[in-house]
Write a structure and sequence with these properties.
GO terms for molecular function: S-adenosylmethionine-dependent methyltransferase activity. By secondary structure, the protein is of the alpha/beta class. It has a single domain, classed as Vaccinia Virus protein VP39 (Rossmann fold, 3-Layer(aba) Sandwich), CATH 3.40.50. The protein has six helices and seven strands; from the N terminus they run H-H-E-E-H-E-E-H-E-H-E-H-E. Strands 3-2-1-4-5-7-6 form a seven-stranded mixed beta sheet.
């Protein structure tokens, strides 16, 4: 006999998760796609401000994932360290470490790529962090950096842990002393009220009561559709944009 009350509760749970997922916009999927293109097969990667390493936990590269000791919602927790060391993540070769971006505990010229996704605005001495990034990168290495765009997202619109937001000019000025080649792109999103890196937990074996489709498959389809739609609307825009992406290559080290 079907438990109607239980099914109704599950439907509400699914709908709530679905709403949160849509609030996430195409943020996570777009970032992950770009990073997958940025990281090559044999690259040794440094993921700065990695938290639970949402963008590198599935790749097969050797990844050193660093973050500060847990403070509020930021930094590694003991549980996230254990999760990264679990057998299910061994294929990704992730090495989690407590470390500070302003004083990286590594020798010179050892990483092929560096990821700094939504972290730069949290670093007090950003110039020192950029110098450290250039120091530990190999001669032909590169850094992938994302940060809020000051032109459309004022600092008082960010969270309290942000020291600053950057315009395109600010980013170029920051990275020019340490890198030879800098490319900056703007990202546009229909839904700006994203919940970064937070995916609802949904059982893959369960289906919506009214729609016989696995929820993750349905969400994946919607993500692809919205991402396709957004790229065609905003591809020719040169001003504004919620987010900036900087690819900084060839460190001056």
């Amino acid at each position: 006999m079907i438990n109607i009350r239980k099914n109704r509760f599950y439907n509400i749970k699914i709908l709530r998760s679905f709403f949160i997922y849509l609030l996430g916009g195409t943020w996570h999927k777009d970032t992950k796609s770009r990073i997958n293109q940025f990281i090559q097969k044999n690259d040794v990667v440094l993921d700065i401000g990695a938290l639970s390493s949402p963008y590198t936990k599935e790749c097969r590269n050797k990844v050193v994932a660093i973050d500060i000791i847990e403070k509020g919602q930021f930094g590694f927790s003991k549980q996230s360290i254990e999760n990264l060391k679990s057998p299910s993540n061994r294929k990704s070769k992730i090495i989690p470490l407590y470390a500070n971006a302003e004083n990286l505990p590594f020798k010179n010229n050892i990483f092929d790529k560096i990821l700094l996704t939504e972290v730069l605005e949290h670093i007090e001495n950003d110039k020192q962090a950029v110098r450290e990034m250039a120091r530990v990168l190999k001669k032909e290495g590169a850094a992938f950096v994302t940060t809020p765009n000051l032109e459309t997202v004022p600092l008082d619109s960010g969270i309290k842990e942000h020291f600053r937001h950057y315009s395109e000019h600010d980013l170029k000025k920051l990275f020019i002393p340490a890198f030879k080649n800098i490319s900056i792109k703007r990202r546009f999103f229909i839904n700006l009220f994203h919940i970064q890196d937070r995916y609802p937990y949904i059982d893959n074996k369960s289906n919506l009561i009214l729609i016989n489709i696995p929820p993750r498959l349905l969400f994946h389809f919607l993500y692809e559709f919205v991402l396709f739609f957004e790229k065609r609307i905003f591809r020719n825009r040169k001003k504004g944009g919620y987010n900036l992406i900087a690819i900084c290559a060839d460190p001056k080290n």
